[in-house]
Design goal:
alpha/beta; Alpha-D-Glucose-1,6-Bisphosphate, Chain A, domain 3; 3 domains; six-stranded mixed β-sheet; six-stranded antiparallel β-sheet; 37% helix; phosphoprotein
Length: 550
């Protein structure tokens, strides 16, 4: 077995075009590190949520130039099989380690396959790439990014010509084309022949952001902004300047791209500690709100002053606020969200007489909802201009939440300057629709079998009660429903609560999404309702953790 493993590693090494990973792999072979080699050659990275994502390193189970070249060749073969072999493929990339190399390799492979390839001019937010696909009439797009994953990761996100991320069966068809490849030497990779775009595509994206805001709306909200060491700063500042908002105060330690993400353990605004520097800057400058993008700027986090200090709004809270704002502006069309997001959106849409849909997790599903006007999911993803960007977009979401904060500020209320705040609107929504409180039990693992074992245990012995509430209905989403195709997940409907359990599509995590709904008859009832919701969520977490064995 060891001889076979070494032979496979040497065959991979012989074709590796990257000096860095060649040296790494040669070192593992020379050291006879069979454990590490087995981990890297136990299979191949598989297409998951819209493409590939994994740790950088040598071998087929890591992200590297060899894996990317194969992925690009598989995508090219897929496009040619769809009679799009002379079409344009637009390629964007973030500022992570190897992102520019992976983008150039993709352009080379597309050119060698007879397609036309165009690189974005420099590292830019993922929504700019999603916009460029439709703007330029491309047949596909690729964004090299690992979004908010740890620094050691990178990824390969694939879009089709409608500007949406790939979904079944395209992902499986591309994977089959990748599997059919034999050697890298069989893949033509010229040194030139593709275009590098100028700033006109970025200018067009920024011009499109005008469509997000209402003509003549207030633009007074003062913000502190962090790019989380990613690529969002310049584009967000340009969009805010164009719209006429006050220039955001930057968190200087996190303003510029840095692939090592030195100030955060995980470059995700949701992770503990990630927003500490932004909160410190907010205490210094007393803005109306704090806005954060994740490193590729497709997500948007929002924090507000709560008493004397600052707190992050949950993604579901921002999702409801944006929905209420759009309804107040007279938006028409379908409101959509993933099944793991708060049911409050459905109540807002129903009250406004608007169509509403639930989808599986991910914007590859949300963006394809017919007649979509607004879509979101709880992981800080918001699609507020589906005609411009059919994906989550942290830049336009930031503009819209700043407009809402400005609008509320102009109203009479209890805020520090006499105006109303985002928290005031959340209170109003709770009184109107019931207090919808959400939380998440998220378990990061080193051993993926922990996730499989937890899912098996819950399927074999589903809980009858959680937090003392009876489980009214248990659903194995792996079998599909009348509205949803099959997915690896479990849904429990309780009396006044809902729980969904699923493995993450992008990280080694088991995610459990919790929601409780507490009736509220007046603003005076809110403190008691929040206390009850906090108690229920904590109890559901404990009981669910015990039931899953995690």
């Amino acid at each position: 077995m060891h001889d076979e493993l070494i032979a496979r590693a040497k065959a991979w090494l012989a074709e590796d075009p990257d000096a860095e990973t060649r040296e790494e792999l040669a070192g593992l072979i020379d050291a006879g590190d069979h454990v590490e080699l087995a981990a890297r050659f136990s299979g191949t990275l598989q297409f998951g949520t819209a493409g590939l994502r994994g740790e950088l390193g040598a071998g087929p189970m890591r992200m590297n130039r060899s894996v990317v070249i194969r992925a690009a060749a598989g995508l090219a073969a897929f496009l040619k099989s769809k009679n799009q072999g002379d079409g344009l493929v637009v390629i964007g990339y973030d500022a992570r380690h190897k992102s520019a190399d992976f983008a150039r390799d993709t352009a080379s492979v597309m050119t060698g396959a007879g397609l036309r390839a165009a690189l974005l001019p420099r590292p830019l937010p993922t929504p700019v790439l999603a916009f460029a696909i439709r703007h330029l009439g491309a047949v596909a797009g690729v964004e090299v990014t690992a979004s908010h994953n740890p620094p050691r990761d990178n990824g390969y996100k694939v879009y089709l010509g409608d500007g949406s991320q790939i979904m079944p069966p395209a992902d499986a068809e591309i994977a089959a084309e990748i599997d059919a490849l034999t050697t890298l030497s069989a893949i033509p990779r010229p040194d030139s022949g593709w275009d590098t775009l100028d700033d006109s595509v970025l200018d067009a994206y920024l011009a499109r952001t005008d469509a997000v805001l209402a003509p003549g709306s207030p633009r007074t909200a003062r913000t502190v902004y962090t790019a989380m060491h990613g690529v969002g700063k310049d584009v967000l500042l340009a969009a805010f300047a164009r719209a006429g908002f006050p220039e955001p105060v930057l968190v200087p330690e996190q303003a510029e791209p840095d692939p090592d993400f030195p100030t955060v353990a995980f470059p995700n605004p949701e992770e503990p500690g990630a927003m500490d520097l932004a909160f410190a800057k907010a205490r210094e400058t007393d803005p109306d709100l704090v806005i954060a993008n994740d490193p590729d700027a497709d997500r948007c986090a929002v924090a507000v002053k709560n008493g004397e200090d600052w707190r992050m709004l949950r993604g579901d809270e921002v999702g409801a606020l944006l929905a209420a704002h759009l309804v107040g502006r007279g938006a028409r069309g379908t409101f959509a969200e993933s099944i793991v997001s708060s049911s409050l959106l459905g109540r807002i849409a129903q009250k406004a007489g608007l169509p509403y849909e639930e989808t599986l997790t991910g914007f590859k599903w949300i963006a394809r909802v017919e007649g979509l006007r607004y879509g979101y999911e709880e992981a800080l993803g918001y699609c507020v201009d589906p005609e411009g960007v059919r994906d989550k977009d942290g830049i336009t979401a930031a503009l819209l939440i700043a407009e809402l904060a400005s609008t509320l500020k102009a109203e009479s209320g209890s805020g520090s300057a006499g105006g109303r705040t985002l928290l005031d609107l959340l209170d109003d929504l709770a009184v109107e629709h019931g207090l919808h409180a959400t939380d998440q039990l998220s378990v990061r693992v080193e051993d993926l079998s922990v996730i499989a074992n937890a899912m098996h245990r819950l399927r074999e012995q589903p809980p009858a009660h959680l937090a003392g509430l009876p489980v009214i209905h248990s659903e194995d989403l792996g079998k599909g429903t009348d509205q949803l195709p099959p997915t690896d997940g479990l849904r429990y409907t309780l009396d006044g609560a809902r729980v969904i359990v699923r493995p993450s599509g992008t990280e080694p995590k088991l995610k459990c999404y919790l929601e409780v709904v507490v009736p509220v008859s007046s603003h005076a009832d809110l403190p008691a309702a929040r206390a009850r919701a906090t108690e229920l969520l904590a109890s559901i977490k404990r009981d669910l953790s015990a039931a899953a064995g995690i």
